[in-house]
Amino acid sequence: MRFLLGGAAALGLFVIAAPALADTQWYVFDLRRQQCYNSANSFSTEQSIRGCTDVISMRTVTGDGRAQAYKLRGDRYREMGDYERALADYNQVIRMRGDHPGAYYRRAEVYLAQGQYDLAMADAERVIQTAGDTPGGYRVRCEIRVAQNGDLDAAREDCNQALEINSIDTAALAARGMLNLRGGANQEAWSDFDAAIFNGRREARTLYGRGVAGIRMGRVREGNADLAAAEQLQPEITATFASFGVTP
User: Fold this and answer.
1) Separation CA 128–CA 161 (nearest Å)
2) How far is the C-alpha of 110 from the C-alpha of 14, rounded, in Å?
3) CA torsion, ordered 45, 51, 57, 63, to nearest 10 deg
4) Each residue of 135-172: pLDDT tens digit?
């Protein structure tokens, strides 16, 4: 009888403990998922990467969920400038879900940053073919053409198409701003760079571009302030613009 009572007591504890364990597992999963998605920017990049890594390792996560975790972790690595790890994650997404336009789009951005223009163009074309109602493929193709100093009329068409889909695509605004500077359309260039900055892309390229346009328009004091701010963020930005034939 004592043995039976002891067994019953143990069973009772197990029944009580099982829901508690399930609650703990759900809490851990939900926390890792929130870290990985980081939609409200509540976590650091490192925490987000850690969350995605844990989600990827969970056996209960579906194939689509795991692919998305790889993609999001790749995005974090890309933001850090760790392009090799970003590429590894995007490649994994494409192996798992070959029709994932987001992975092709982000991989195109990495290839563009690395100067691998042919690979970037192939991915941008894939995005346009599979998700032509989104701005990313057109915008990246515009940026590639600007970087290669190639068909600038086609580049403008791509930037315009991206902005028709999303009027505040800040990267497309910055790319078109560069085209306007090179074409001597300084007021249009200033407007594009200013809109990009206003909508959150306050970086060396947009500040320097707005500064050049401002100086050319006679707004010398404002322009010089933008140039100084841009050079503080990225000392080589003057040389970068000069390589495109763009000077104040």
Assistant:
1) 11
2) 51
3) -90
4) 999 999 999 999 998 889 999 999 999 999 999 999 99
CA atoms within 13 A on the CB side of 186: 15
Q: Are 177 and 169 in contact (CB under 8 A)?
A: no
Question: pTM of the entire structure?
Answer: 0.82
d(CA 134, CA 158): 12
pLDDT of residue 9: 43
pLDDT confidence band for 25 (50 / 70 / 90): low
Task: Write the CA distances from 103 to 8, 68, 126, 216, integer angstroms.
Answer: 54, 9, 11, 40
Task: For the chain, list the domains and their CATH numbers.
Answer: 184-248 (1.25.40)
Amino acid at position 211, single letter: G
**How far apart are the two ends of the chain, measured CA to CA in Å?**
94
